[in-house]
Amino acid sequence: MTTQASVRDKAVGDGPQTVVTIVDMLDDLGAGRDVVSFGKIIDTLGARGFGPLLFGLAVLLVLPIGMIPGVGGAIGVVMAVIGVQMLRGRGRVWLPRFIRRRCLSAQRLKHASDLLRPRMEWLRRHTHQRLTPLAEGGLSLRVIAALLILAGLGMAIFGAIPILPPLMGASVLFFALGLTTRDGAAVVLGYLLVLLPVAAILAL
Asked: Are 57 and 104 in contact (CB under 8 A)?
């Protein structure tokens, strides 16, 4: 019971305002830097919990930045690790040093945050705490964790396929949105969207 509670507390965010806060954090990360390491992004967003961290990573996947060679695969590894940590009840994301050292252009990160801000404001106004067992229940969190592992491994293996990062990112984005805002309706959309990358891989 304690393990399940710790997983829930670490995975679930504080509510709809968190999505705007995540964009502010991405914007701050790029300020005054030429590049931003994955380690810095993960440490900063991960301090808010797995939900906000996943949300920030999924946002990068659905934008053009996710199709930069190597970025999709690195994010996939992080997603798989988060899934494992959620299943094990761990509160901290451990990553190999070579992943933590990978860097993104701070200018691209700044551009992404500028692009996202009005969309996140819209999401803040339209997400609500509903169907909460899907967003914070132990069974749903375990299913999401397992799907994150599969999606992450899929990204690590097939991430060079141009269409795959945004397809994977879309389902993870809604899982993360649901966890971050405690909106079970977003989690339902995540479950539905997870079929798209599976269909793309099977069609290869």
From this structure: no
Neighbours of 37 (CB within 10 A): 16
Angle at 155 between CA 11 and CA 112, to 5 degrees: 70
Q: Where are the alpha helices (DSSP H) in 89-204?
A: 97-100, 106-126, 132-136, 138-158, 164-181, 184-193, 195-202
| Cα–Cα distance measured from residue 68 to residue 136, given in angstroms and rounded to the nearest whole number | 33
Query: Could you tell me the residue range of the domain that residue 78 belongs to?
Result: 2-202
pLDDT tens track for 102-155 = 888 888 888 888 888 888 888 888 888 888 888 888 888 899 999 899 888 887
Rounded CA separation 78/42 (Å): 9
| Count: domains in the chain | 1
